[in-house]
Amino acid sequence: MKSIPLILMGCGGVGRQLLQHIVSCRLIHANLHGVRLRVVGVADSKSLLSVPDIFTTELDDNSINEICRLKSNGSSLSSLTSYGAYQVFSNSETITNISEIASHLVRSTGLAVVDCSASSDTIGILQKVVEMNGCIVLANKKPLTSSMENYDKLVLHPHRLRHESTVGAGLPVIVSINRLLSSGDTIHRIVGSLSGTLGYVMSEVEDGKPLSEVVKTAKALGYTEPDPRDDLGGMDVARKALIIARLLGQRIELDSIKVESLYPAEMGPNVMNVEEFLATGVPQLDNNLADRVEKAATNGNVLRYVCVIEGSRCEVGIQEVPKNSALGRLRGSDNVVEVYSRCYSEQPLIIQGAGAGNDTTAAGVLADILDIQDLFT
Fold first, then answer.
1. 100 annotated to bind ligand
2. Which of 63, 99, 185, 314 has the most C-beta neighbours closer than 10 Å?
3. Residue 11 annotated as part of some ligand binding site
4. Residue 10, marked binder
5. Which pLDDT score is estimated for 109?
6. How far apart are CA 294 and CA 297, in angstroms?
7. In a 3-state reduction of DSSP, which class is residue 374?
8. DSSP 104-120
9. Choosing from 209, 240, 258, 295, which is the catalytic residue?
């Protein structure tokens, strides 16, 4: 049985779901792959829980389930000051201890460090793991969308990096692009609706509903962040677009991407609280967007919030798209990506499906971990 030691950073919704997937898929991994995923450490923003002997022991399934229960209640791993035979390190010791674990394991059996956090603080750890020829698997977009200097260090060994879930949750966006590039196909244009929230908003507005009503409904359904402006501002889509653009060879920074926000600066978090924005702010935007929807309809088009990557161009915002295209037919919170290349020139390669959700994202991360199993002995 092949063993893959791993450390998980980030115990939010995706991290917990990943741990649960690892436990529930033990038999599948053993019978189909001959692999056991051996969790030797789990870190949140405040502490690291690790096994005392990283070479022979692992967090057992009961302990993993207990960690998930603890974190789902909003507690920190630091509350486990003494948990069985496991060790709990404070935040100031976390980076040092992850680095030490990595240095020992990489030299012997190898190690996968999985980043399911939403923090930039993990970049230093990830770079050290890469320098030691360890493997990294990312759901966290921020490391790959920081400076080009950091990016270059993280992608130094591409075969040891997987990051499918940074763009389309479990959708095969990154792997499809890499396959085209590896085959010598030339990609000249990518257009994608990469936000389930904004996909839902735009398709509902297309049906004649006011933006303010749609945003309130989306928030009530749990489609948005607690502050819907975190979605409506478009920066999450911009990060995904940057990851794709860099994959295609563009050496650009996040602040060089043109991003259209669905709300003006005078309605920002520093000016209005969430309640004020929903009550008096977003209703002021209804008529303008309704007019744009009507104008698009006269052209036989619909509006979608998309990223457009073409040549040196990388933009994020509202675009008119043909009503009968894959993007035009998009409904609800699915993601859709259209890839135009030499081989897919007139009819693009279409990638479509659920592009959000803890379960879907965690499944994509798990698939990425299994995809690097040949690098372990």
1. no
2. 314
3. yes
4. yes
5. 79
6. 5
7. helix
8. HHHHHT--EEEE----S
9. 240
